[in-house]
Write the structure tokens for this entry.
Amino acid sequence: MARVATAFVDPELIVIGGRLPSDMNADLVERIQHLDLVGPSRGLPVAPIQASKLGPQTGALGAASLPVFASFFAGSVGSGHNPYVNGRRR
């Protein structure tokens, strides 16, 4: 999955998190890091992977940030009032 994410999005970092306990996230990241992942065919390196430090509040923090993005970063949040989504015209 890390290889696919790197091929499509080219992220600087992949963060594993959510409602799983922190120790399970850390174990998952450790197992993924020990896999021999070959980079995508475009020659990009596989993005580094780390466990989230936010814990189970991640979803709430993301939801709380939506009004901030809608107000200050036009086009970053899809809405019926804006013809742009992620900087592209719909």
